[in-house]
Specification:
The protein is α+β, with helices and mostly antiparallel strands. The chain folds into 2 domains: 8-110, Immunoglobulin-like, CATH 2.60.40; 118-308 and 351-437, Rossmann fold (3-Layer(aba) Sandwich). The chain has 8 helices and 24 strands. The strands form 7 sheets. It has an 8-stranded mixed beta sheet with strand order 9-10-12-11-13-14-19-22, with helices on both faces. Strands 2, 3, 5, 6, 7 and 8 form a 6-stranded antiparallel beta sheet that branches.
Length: 457
Amino acid sequence: MKEELHITASSLVPNELYEIFLRLNHFMGTFMSRGVFCADDLGEIDVSTMAPLRGTYSGVRPMGLFEGLLPCEDFRYGNYCKCTPPNPFKFDVELRDCTGKVLCSVPIIKRWIHPAVVRREIEEDGLCGTLFKPPGDGPFPTILDMSGAGGGINEHKGATLSSEGFCVFSLAFFQYKTLISDLNDLDLDYFRKAIHWLIALPFTRKEIGIQGVSFGGLLVNMLAVRHPEIIAVCSINGGHVISEYARIKENGKILPYTDTPTNMLYYLNQTMCYDKTVKYMVVTEEADMKVETAPKRTAFRYVSFQKILASRYTARRLSHVASRVIMHRRCGTAQQTGGGCRRQVFHGTNASLDDLSTPTVFVTRLHEKKLKESGHYVEVDFAPGGHLMEPPYFPGHQVVYAKIAGCIQAYGGEPCLHGAGQNKIWPNTVAFFKRFLGEPQPLEDYREMSEAPRSHL
């Protein structure tokens, strides 16, 4: 689940170099990370106390190998690493000597959902999604979780939250099963129906939290203004206004929207960067969502990935070849390709490219100012990284194919820093929901249960 691993190696040749190589064997392709370490005088390596001499991360990071995963050649460029249903991720950790010979290999299973959590696919009264219910009768602190404009459904955030004891409804809203296929056909009434359905369940509470990322991060603010049942809002890298490319409706009528300044679009290595376009949208009085008009008891949390330094070096990392790792399976070695990126140590000065899809620091400060002036509780969490914030140890994505735009879109973020940012942000989000929704009953450690529960996947 969320626990840290303690990775050590012993009985090695003292003061010799060894590589620890991590491979994620995902059904969509392979991800990898690596670190080269020098064994100490006793012939031992302890990843929790030693920094790699080179590799896909730098500094002493006990889970640095899991935070800095990179896509390999067999993972299609622009794809998103799916985790629906939230099946376990299968890793291999290898110890290699300086010639690349594999000395030891250990398989690791990473779960996204506690085996006792019940996963139920929902297709009722026009609603589509997945409900995650912890064991017991409840009532449980309840969260509505949604993704962005990529369509479909992503369940891993809901599964991870439910493993903390929350009842979570991961809601799809277009391009999934019987739902609409065009985002312009989306009506806010759909979410009203979902909220009322969720709070009517016998094991949920009548006041809920809501979480959304990207376009979903925009929607959660709009819904908080309209629904007093929502008392805790977590917006992850969301926008601040509806644009002409997503003219959503309410009660069948198109809501006011703003024009998109397409002249502010720019490209890095043929990937579209949308952040400046959003920043310079002119928000009219009619199009303003007026987040400050939400009920005073509604608490807000904004998660944003901020820029430390965007140099030409970091910009080059968005190129196709620079973000790829060629796996030479026959000889068991790996190398990065790309003239500008042969250095594999990520230094602090070459940090995150920031979110290249949404100007989230700008948007967050905008919302924060309004909500503080209106007397709302609002908390802000900044971390270096790209557009998508996932649970800890989920691979980062520097680029993703944007179906709504029909091109590859830049999300930004250095993989190792993005992964470390996720590790920092996620526990704070869990603490936020616990504070305002109530402390859920902790789930028993399934590894210590007398009878291992059967998975409900």
